[in-house]
C-alpha cells in the first residue's frame, strides 16, 4: 500500500508536466526547449541532493561497469519518453496528452515477458520469464475505458492530423518509460537508490539534451524567460520529485510483476490532476457528464487494481522454465 501511495503522489507531480508543457506551447515556446531544459535543469538539482549524502562516487563506480548500457537505457527511459511527450503537447491539450499517456499502464504489463522474475518451483526458487498479469491487465483496461470516456467528447473536436501527431509519439513514450526504468532496475541490481538512479540516467542522457539544445537554437532561437522559469518548475516538481517518488515505488514492487503493474497503474491519476490543473491555470472548460463518468471509472479501476488480491504464482512446469 505504501508503494501505491508513493505512486499517487508522483502522479500529482507528474501532472504538472502536462499542464506546464501545454502552457509553454500556447505561449509560443518550442517543444524542443521544453524537453531539453527539463533535464539540463534537473542535473544541478540532483547533484545538490546527492553530493551531501556522498553517493556520487558510488554511482559513478557502478556506471563505469557498463557505460554502454547506461547510455542505452537512459536514452530509452528518458529520451524516448520525454521528447515524444513534448512533441505531443504541440498538437494536443494537456488533458488529452495525459489521457493518451495512460497507454503506459497496458504497455507496462505487456513488457512482463522481457524480464526475469523469481518464483517458487518444485526444487525451490527458480528464475523464469515474467508472465503478463491477465487479471491486472483487465483492471488496467477498465482504467483505460474510463480515460477514453473522459476524453471522448473533447477528442472529437480536434483535427485528425493533430490527434494523430498528438497520439503516435505518446505510444512510443508509453513503451519507452517502463522499459527503460525496469532495465535500469535490472542493471543496478539494488545497489543504487532511486535518487542515484535518476541522477545516473540524467548524466547518461546528457549528450542528447545538449545536442537537442543546439537544434533548439537553430530552429527556434533562445527560449523566453517565461519558458525557462516554467522549465525550472517542471524539472523540480516532475523531473526530480515525481521521478524519484515513482522510482522508489517501483523499487518497493520489484520482483512482482503484479505489484509493479499496480504501481504503474497509479499514473492514471495524472489525468484527473492534469484536468484540475488546466481548469485552474489555463481556464479550460468544465468536463461533460460523460467525462465525469469516465473519472469515476478510473477511480474504481484504481481501487480494484490496488486492492483485489492476485493469485500467487505456483510451481512452474519444465516447459515453462527459462533459467538464465
Automatic annotation (TrEMBL):
Q: Which Pfam families match?
A: EmrE
Q: Name the coiled-coil region(s).
A: none
Keywords of this entry: Membrane, Transmembrane, Transmembrane helix
Q: Does the keyword Ribonucleoprotein apply?
A: no
* Keyword Nucleotide-binding recorded: no
Bilayer-crossing residues are 31-51, 71-92, 98-119, 131-152, 158-177, 198-222, 228-247, 290-308
The molecule here is called Multidrug resistance efflux transporter family protein
- Which species does the entry assign this protein to? Paenibacillus lacisoli
> Taxonomic lineage of this organism?
Bacteria, Bacillati, Bacillota, Bacilli, Bacillales
Amino acid at each position: 500500500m505504501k508503494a501505491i501511495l508513493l505512486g499517487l503522489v508522483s502522479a500529482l507531480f507528474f501532472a504538472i508536466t502536462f499542464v506546464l508543457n501545454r502552457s509553454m506551447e500556447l505561449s509560443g515556446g518550442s517543444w524542443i526547449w521544453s524537453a531539453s531544459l527539463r533535464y539540463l535543469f534537473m542535473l544541478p538539482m540532483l547533484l545538490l541532493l546527492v553530493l551531501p549524502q556522498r553517493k556520487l562516487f558510488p554511482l559513478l563506480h557502478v556506471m563505469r561497469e557498463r557505460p554502454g548500457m547506461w547510455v542505452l537505457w537512459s536514452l530509452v527511459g528518458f529520451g524516448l519518453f520525454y521528447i515524444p511527450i513534448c512533441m505531443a503537447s504541440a498538437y494536443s491539450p494537456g488533458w488529452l496528452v495525459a489521457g493518451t499517456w495512460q497507454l503506459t499502464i497496458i504497455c507496462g504489463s505487456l513488457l512482463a515477458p522481457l524480464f526475469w522474475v523469481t518464483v517458487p518451483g518444485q526444487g525451490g526458487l527458480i528464475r523464469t520469464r515474467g508472465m503478463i498479469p491477465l487479471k491486472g491487465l483487465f483492471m488496467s483496461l477498465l482504467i483505460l475505458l474510463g480515460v477514453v470516456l473522459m476524453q471522448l467528447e473533447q477528442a472529437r473536436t480536434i483535427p485528425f492530423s493533430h490527434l494523430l501527431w498528438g497520439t503516435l509519439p505518446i505510444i512510443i513514450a508509453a513503451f519507452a518509460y517502463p522499459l527503460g526504468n525496469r532495465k535500469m532496475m535490472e542493471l543496478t541490481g539494488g545497489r543504487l537508490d532511486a535518487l542515484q538512479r535518476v541522477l545516473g540516467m540524467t548524466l547518461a542522457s546528457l549528450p542528447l539534451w545538449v545536442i537537442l539544445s543546439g537544434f533548439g537554437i537553430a530552429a527556434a532561437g533562445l527560449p523566453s524567460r517565461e519558458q525557462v522559469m516554467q522549465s525550472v518548475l517542471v524539472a523540480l516538481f516532475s523531473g526530480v520529485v515525481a521521478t524519484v517518488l515513482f522510482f522508489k515505488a517501483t523499487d518497493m514492487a520489484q520482483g512482482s510483476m503484479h505489484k509493479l503493474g499496480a504501481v504503474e497503474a497509479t499514473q492514471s491519476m495524472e489525468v484527473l490532476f492534469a484536468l484540475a490543473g488546466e481548469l485552474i491555470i489555463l481556464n479550460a472548460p468544465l468536463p461533460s457528464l460523460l467525462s465525469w463518468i469516465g473519472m469515476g471509472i478510473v477511480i474504481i479501476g484504481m481501487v480494484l487494481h490496488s486492492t483485489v488480491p492476485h493469485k500467487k504464482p505456483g510451481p512452474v512446469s519444465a516447459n515453462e522454465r527459462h533459467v538464465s
